[in-house]
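$ ./design --mode recover --in tokens.txt
reading tokens...
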């Protein structure tokens, strides 16, 4: 059974790239949201095993995304959350990692951006393809 994923990002372009990379390793993207509030509602309904969460979105920057992240982890402690950000070093990103995010992906994406996350996902979800 495929790992069910939810993508939360305000950029349709970024969502397409993330979808492509997740599907390439065997995930099934069950939902896409363009802000943290919408993503949290979808999370509660869909109960995905994996969430990619952009931390810099209009209306839901940093702290609001962090609040959504904490709610997701409280509701489903085993959910794997991958933080997506444009800032190479950001205290908010570090806070996500300290609180249990699986990892992060920096924007803009390149052909190597997803490799560290892919390797972590393979360790967490045995049903993914190498």
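writing sequence...
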């Amino acid at each position: 059974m495929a790992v069910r994923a939810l993508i939360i990002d305000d950029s349709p372009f970024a969502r397409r790239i993330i979808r492509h990379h997740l599907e390439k390793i065997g995930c099934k993207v069950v939902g896409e949201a363009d802000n943290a509030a919408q993503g949290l509602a979808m999370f509660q309904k869909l109960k995905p095993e994996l969430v990619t969460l952009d931390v810099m979105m209009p209306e839901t920057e940093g702290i609001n995304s962090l609040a959504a992240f904490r709610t997701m982890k409280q509701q489903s402690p085993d959910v794997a959350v991958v933080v997506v950000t444009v800032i190479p070093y950001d205290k908010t990103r570090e806070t996500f990692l300290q609180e249990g995010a699986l990892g992060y992906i920096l924007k803009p994406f390149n052909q190597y951006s997803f490799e560290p996350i892919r390797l972590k996902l393979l360790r967490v979800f045995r049903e993914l393809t190498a």
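exit 0
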